């Protein structure tokens, strides 16, 4: 048998561990540079209901717009340039274009091959006119686009919508779905052991397990099963319940960051001193569900029974057909279009960050 | 309370043991009922047809199977990926009925299969 048959493309996984409070922590940079996010998945062990503060943050996510058949030169028109693009909070990616078959376009807020914030490309300059006429007359590209803009709460928040109004943009909100998983086998994680050499499982096994949870794949199989031998990695424990929450749409990195901050806040304030919280907790019934109200930190608990999650996980999937992954690092599809990162947040504010891209892509930052 | 951790960074190259495949089966005369065991047996017979009894003797897992859409997720050791993929591609019939396996997504990360942005549809006809 030819040895060529046993080769496969490279895989690349970058893992970091640090602490959110560490001055040099780069978690915020990694989140902000991953511009084109399609799906967020949050897993909170020992949690049964979606906490109100988390659903509040998600419902405040900026809307996104689908614009059909938009000529690319519209993005460079003087009006759009001044009112929207210069602000640097607009993200756009061509929709329904496959990067391995079609041309794909992405508008980054800061750096692109055609740098829209370059001074030599300011309206009125020769270079600007040349690019504009090129896209208008010589290469009249038109695509369906998805747009989103981070809401800053200012008066100009409608500027993106106004700019696109003649192309009849359709507004969409990110779709939230969540459900509670019961009796879930769950790997045990220790923040100090990222590589899984002694206490935790290794990063690939953890990501495999997380994938199995997200895809509703059973991990209770016998070693001699005909169908599947997949089992939860060791060391493991069984959690009585876990909340799996997914948000799908076109999500700006700013919104991802806000969600991360809220998740961190909950972990920090509700789980840091569980003993103290127990002493001051009062019971609260909302819609026949039992909550615990922690009066010492003035914050509602996740849990409808007194257990505390030692960690939670946030996974962010980028668009598989985005031409870039982080910053301006090139991204392709090849066979799977991997373009995601995962943050495991621990209650002492330590975190693990896993970043993965495709076989021929640039290395994550 | 544990002490806050120190910064660490590791780059794993080709450290993944498995590849994962999301596939679906198209049959010429539409859907028919398959059990998960029948579905896996069909893939095994495709492997044997192409590589023979010995060449096809490597393990793979049917992690998930949806009988209504005939979509499945497979897990295979890296060195079996090309053989499995080629056997799926070259299978042309099932019980004298033309059929084809479609490979939707292949990744060394199972997690990547849970976030397929090509599934983002808005339920309206596309303008040409």
Automatic annotation (TrEMBL), chain A:
Which Pfam families does this chain map to?
Ribonuc_P_40 (PF08584)
Gene Ontology terms, MF aspect: ribonuclease MRP activity; ribonuclease P activity
Q: Might you report a single GO cellular component term?
A: ribonuclease MRP complex
Could you tell me the Gene Ontology terms of the biological process aspect for this record? Answer: endonucleolytic cleavage in ITS1 to separate SSU-rRNA from 5.8S rRNA and LSU-rRNA from tricistronic rRNA transcript (SSU-rRNA, 5.8S rRNA, LSU-rRNA); tRNA 5'-leader removal
**Cleavable signal peptide:** none
Q: Could you tell me which InterPro entries the record lists for this protein?
A: RNase_P_Rpp40
Superkingdom field: Eukaryota
Indicate what this protein is called per its UniProt record.
Ribonuclease P protein subunit p40
From TrEMBL, chain B:
Checking Gene3D superfamilies in the record gives: Ribonuclease P, Pop5 subunit (3.30.70.3250)
Q: Which GO terms describe its molecular function?
A: ribonuclease P RNA binding
UniProt keyword Aminoacyl-tRNA synthetase present: no
Pfam families found in the cross-reference section = RNase_P_Rpp14 (PF01900)
Report one GO cellular component.
nucleolus
- Keyword set, alphabetical order: tRNA processing
Q: Which residues cross the membrane?
A: none
Question: Does the record bear tRNA processing in its keywords?
Answer: yes
**Record InterPro entries:** Pop5/Rpp14/Rnp2-like (IPR002759), Rnp2-like_sf (IPR038085)
Instruction: Output the GO biological process annotations, alphabetical, semicolon-separated.
Output: tRNA 5'-leader removal
Q: Identify its protein family.
A: Belongs to the eukaryotic/archaeal RNase P protein component 2 family.
Question: What is this protein called in UniProt?
Answer: Ribonuclease P protein subunit p14
Task: Please name the taxonomic classification of the source.
Answer: Eukaryota, Metazoa, Chordata, Craniata, Vertebrata
């Amino acid at each position: 048998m030819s040895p060529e048959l046993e080769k496969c493309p490279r895989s690349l996984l970058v893992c970091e561990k640090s602490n959110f409070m560490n001055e040099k922590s780069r978690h915020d940079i990694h989140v902000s540079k991953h511009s084109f996010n399609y799906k967020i998945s949050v897993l909170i062990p020992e949690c049964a209901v979606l906490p109100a503060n988390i659903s509040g943050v998600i419902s405040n996510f900026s809307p996104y717009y689908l614009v059909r058949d938009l000529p690319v030169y519209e993005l460079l028109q003087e009006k759009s340039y001044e009112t929207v693009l210069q602000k640097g909070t607009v993200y756009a990616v061509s929709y329904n274009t496959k990067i391995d078959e079609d041309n794909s376009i992405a508008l980054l807020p800061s750096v692109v091959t055609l740098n829209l914030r370059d001074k030599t490309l300011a309206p009125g300059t020769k270079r600007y006119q040349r690019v504009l006429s090129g896209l208008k007359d010589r290469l009249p590209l038109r695509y369906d686009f998805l747009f989103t803009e981070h809401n800053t709460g200012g008066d100009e928040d409608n500027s993106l919508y106004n700019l696109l109004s003649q192309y009849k943009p359709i507004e969409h909100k990110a779709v939230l779905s969540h459900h509670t998983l019961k009796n879930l086998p769950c790997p045990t994680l220790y923040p100090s052991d990222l590589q899984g050499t002694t206490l935790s499982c290794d990063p690939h096994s953890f990501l495999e397990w997380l994938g199995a949870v997200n895809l509703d794949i059973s991990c209770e199989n016998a070693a001699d099963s005909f169908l599947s031998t997949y089992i939860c990695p060791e060391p493991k424990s069984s959690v009585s319940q876990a909340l799996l929450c997914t948000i799908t749409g076109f999500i700006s990195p700013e919104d991802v960051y806000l969600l991360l901050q809220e998740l961190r806040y909950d972990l920090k304030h509700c789980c840091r001193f569980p003993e103290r919280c127990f002493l001051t907790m009062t019971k609260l019934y909302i819609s026949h569900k039992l909550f615990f109200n922690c009066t010492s930190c003035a914050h509602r608990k996740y849990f409808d029974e007194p257990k505390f999650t030692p960690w939670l996980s946030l996974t962010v999937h980028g668009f598989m057909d985005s031409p870039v992954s982080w910053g301006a690092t090139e991204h392709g599809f090849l066979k799977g279009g991997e373009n995601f990162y995962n943050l495991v947040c621990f209650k002492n504010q330590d975190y693990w960050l896993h970043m993965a891209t495709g076989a021929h892509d640039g290395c994550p930052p | 309370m544990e002490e806050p951790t120190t910064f660490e960074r590791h780059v794993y190259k080709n450290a993944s043991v498995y590849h994962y495949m999301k596939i679906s089966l198209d049959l010429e005369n539409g859907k028919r009922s398959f059990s998960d065991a029948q579905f896996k047996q069909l893939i095994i017979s495709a492997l044997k047809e192409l590589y023979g009894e010995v060449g096809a003797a490597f393990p793979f897992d049917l992690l998930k199977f949806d009988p209504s859409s005939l979509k499945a997720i497979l897990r295979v050791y890296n060195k079996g990926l090309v053989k499995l993929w080629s056997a799926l591609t070259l299978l042309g019939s099932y019980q004298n009925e033309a059929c084809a396996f479609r490979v939707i997504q292949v990744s060394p990360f199972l997690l990547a299969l849970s976030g397929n942005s090509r599934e983002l549809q808005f339920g309206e006809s596309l303008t040409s």
